[in-house]
């Protein structure tokens, strides 16, 4: 009799343990998914939160395509943030990610520019000056050779907080440094992508952003909505 009771208790204990494991697993799975809600599409659903020329920028499935020169801009301004995206370029492609832009109509002089260039076909300049992931105009140490071959998807993550920018490309830190510029350039500002400068296009997908704590204030930075004005890429 005791053996039967022990067997009965053992079977029920097994089921109880299995149920507990399922509940714990579900809890951690839910928690992980809930953490993902901190991220949101930079340009909104179907570019509903973007300022752009519809004749130049368009979505094909989940891939963002562009024509030459013109930029697409966020409708919101951001200060302390992490930006995450994937991009693919052809050989010799040249484009920039633009952050902390106070004046999209004159973004060359009023933004922080992060290169998304493929330098494999560049012969007339030093590739180290425009290596993918470098911050244009700032002599930060740069790791080269991180960009994948033309036609392959690259993963880029940029963190900007307290005037400091760090760039991680394909899981490796490319550069990191303090942006020593006038206050109006350091943020908050609009975020944009430049249309390609050469005949080789660049395409994008999974462009998302989340706020991070500002090391100076110790609190998350709030986005600020504004109007971006002109979108035309100024010629050099």
Topology:
Elements lengths: L1 H34 L4 E2 L8 E2 L6 E3 L2 E3 L5 E8 L2 E9 L6 E6 L10 E4 L38 E8 L2 E6 L2 E7 L4 H4 L2 E6 L7 E10 L12 E2 L11
Antiparallel strand pairs: 1-13, 2-5, 3-4, 4-13, 5-12, 5-14, 6-9, 6-13, 7-8, 7-12, 9-10, 10-11
Keywords:
236 residues; eight-stranded antiparallel β-sheet; six-stranded antiparallel β-sheet; 16% helix; disordered C terminus; globular; 32% strand; alpha+beta; single chain
Folded structure, characterized:
It contains 2 helices and 14 strands, in the order H-E-E-E-E-E-E-E-E-E-E-E-H-E-E-E. The protein is an alpha+beta fold. A hairpin with a 2-residue loop joins strand 3 (58-60) and strand 4. Mean pLDDT is 77; it is low at 6-13, 15-35 and 224-236.
């Amino acid at each position: 009799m005791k053996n039967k009771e022990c067997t009965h208790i053992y079977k029920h204990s097994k089921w109880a343990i299995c149920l507990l494991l399922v509940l714990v697993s579900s809890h951690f799975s839910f928690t992980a998914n809930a953490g993902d809600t901190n991220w949101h599409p930079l340009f909104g659903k179907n570019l509903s939160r973007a300022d752009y020329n519809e004749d130049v920028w368009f979505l094909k499935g989940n891939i963002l395509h562009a024509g030459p020169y013109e930029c697409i801009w966020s409708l919101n301004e951001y200060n302390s943030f992490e930006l995450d995206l994937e991009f693919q370029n052809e050989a010799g492609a040249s484009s920039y990610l633009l952050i902390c832009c106070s004046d999209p109509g004159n973004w060359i002089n009023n933004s922080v520019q992060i290169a998304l260039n493929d330098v494999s076909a560049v012969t007339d300049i030093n590739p180290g000056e425009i290596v993918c992931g470098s911050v244009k105009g700032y002599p930060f140490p740069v790791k080269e050779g991180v960009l994948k071959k033309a036609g392959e998807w690259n993963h880029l993550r940029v963190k900007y907080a307290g005037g400091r920018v760090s760039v991680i490309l394909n899981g490796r830190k490319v550069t990191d440094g303090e942006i020593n510029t006038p206050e109006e350039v350091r943020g908050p500002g609009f975020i944009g992508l430049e249309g390609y400068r050469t005949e080789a296009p660049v395409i994008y997908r999974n462009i998302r952003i989340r706020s991070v704590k500002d090391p100076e204030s110790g609190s998350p930075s709030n986005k600020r909505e504004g109007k971006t004005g002109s979108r035309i890429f100024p010629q050099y």
